[in-house]
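Operator note (shift B, R.M.): manual run for RidA family protein requested after the automated queue skipped it. Running by hand, logging everything below so the morning shift can see what happened. Input copied straight from the record, untouched. If output looks odd, do not overwrite the archive copy; leave it for review.
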Amino acid sequence: MSVTMAGSALDRLRALGLELPTLADSPYYVDHREVGSSIHIAGQLPYKDGVLLGQGIVGRDVGLETARELARHAALNCLAAAVQAVGDLDRVRIVQMLVFVASTPDFGLQSRVANAASELLIEVLGENGRHARTAIGVAGLPANTPVEIQMICTAA
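Run finished. Output pasted below as returned.
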């Protein structure tokens, strides 16, 4: 992975061909909650423009590369929630990321799925994107999505 830290985090995001999405409001939960200096980001699914980008179980219905791309979209949605909290992408510092992968019991490559999200965070945020991380396989996720990502971040 090559990280060029020229320009702002938003410039680096755009250089990847990406934009921060607008997150849909929910009557049941908020996308982020501040507790002291920590910002807890609610689990984000790989939605783009209101459409869930994939469904199924990784290792059965969904291949590794597709799951990695879905993880990148879920991480992008987490970044959007973080920006709601801190106001500027350059101020986002990721502390911890938890990646849930709906996968077959024998899949075993959850960390490779999570790596795609980690790579995106570091490409966009540089050192502020480096984080502690857990990647786990689960039997199922909301809306039959293959990936869900939850984060804790702070304002840099």
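Quick read of the result: The beta strands are 32-35, 38-44, 47-48, 51-52, 92-102, 132-138, 147-155. The CA atoms of residues 92 and 155 lie 5 Å apart.
Leaving this for review. - R.M.
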